[in-house]
Amino acid sequence: MAGWTPTLSPGDAPLYERLLDALRADIASGALHDGARLPPQRDLAHRLGLGLGTVTRAYVEAEKAGLVQAHVGRGSFVRGVSVPSGRPIPLMGPLNLAQNIAPQRAAADHLTEALAKLRRRPDLLDHLGYSPVAGSDVQRRAGAAWLARSGGLEGADWTRLVCCAGAQQGLALALGALVRPGDTVLCEASTYQGVKAIADHAGLRLRGVAMDADGVRPDALEAAARDGARVATLLPTLQNPTGRIMGLRRREEIVAVARKHDLWLVEDDIYAVYAGDHPPPLAVLAPERTFHVSGVSKSLAPGLRAGYLVTPPGDHFERVLRAVRALAYAPPAFGGLIATQWIEDGTADAIAAAGVAETTARLAMALDILGAAVEPPCSPAAPHLWLPMGELEAERVAGRALRGGVEVTPPSAPVVTPGLETGVRVCLGPVADRTDLERGLRVVAAALAGADERSQGVI
To answer: Dihedral, CA atoms, 205, 210, 212, 216, nearest 10 degrees?
Structure first.
């Protein structure tokens, strides 16, 4: 199909995106079949009156998306396989609805500008050396400002903030300062699977605490604390995987239990930017006993690996720094510097706002397709959805979706204590565009329909 001449749709999107959309549409319609050879980039640029760089970027993005495969000296070829619907799917693995990644188009659009601004920073060369163990002051101040703006951590003390290689490292550092191998750590009955990975690596015992629609139940937390646990790691805002937001009264009840039983709290607040006007963080309600963890992976771009850990008063800050020295010597500098540049000049707010708007549109689409199977989200911009169901049924739904070419989060990933909180998580951000998301959601809907039919004895 060396004579392929696509029709670019009108609009304000960059030309390379419109060319990529035309390629995707022609593959979906069958106008470009599996194995079809695309025109050389220079020829297509001449034919369409576009710059060579525009066509080259579209081809590169198409290869990243699995739509084409490039062979040096031979050209680029459509890479797809037919499914019963007649529409192509990529051969590079299942469509990813299992990983919580923010839509990255806005960050990509601002990256070149950010790099240009970095060249003009008077402190640029300072970041070529080792950072101070807690991170440079400029990055720590920016991190505290971002936590206040994006998550409501008003009055965050930047002198107790540690820059981390992502929020995951922040969680590991906080838990490492509080517990030792063999200790029990409390968490939600189904929790962020990164917490499970930390516990497994560090030899900790996770104990899942029963939840309701408002998050962890205070009575269940108190019962667990009476058994000797001294640390709880919680995600009160857009909890992962359920997407629930803990109300103010419930947060105050959790804090009361923590104070009564001298329980340390490790608060993961990474999704706050998607929650709108939500209650204050636990670190505001109980600053004396809360380690607050957040970052920019879910709001700006995961590749920056810029996370922030704010420690409570006392010697915890120094204990965390000793761990940083032992494990990494110092936090990485340049991802955090890009985040700092964006926070300082307001670009971070624009990227986050664009991500929230895109996620809001994606959520509306998901609710329309998946309907009553979804637990009603607590925010119109929730980046992940919870489909509650029994563990066996959830595993079957996840398996059917995977056989249909779509990967969702099965219950085995987040479940800590079986039988308390199980279901399937669907993430809305990782796919490049809404066309692919719609296709993936319809596969999930078909997997759910298969579960319904099975339960009724139809299949």
So the answer is: -50
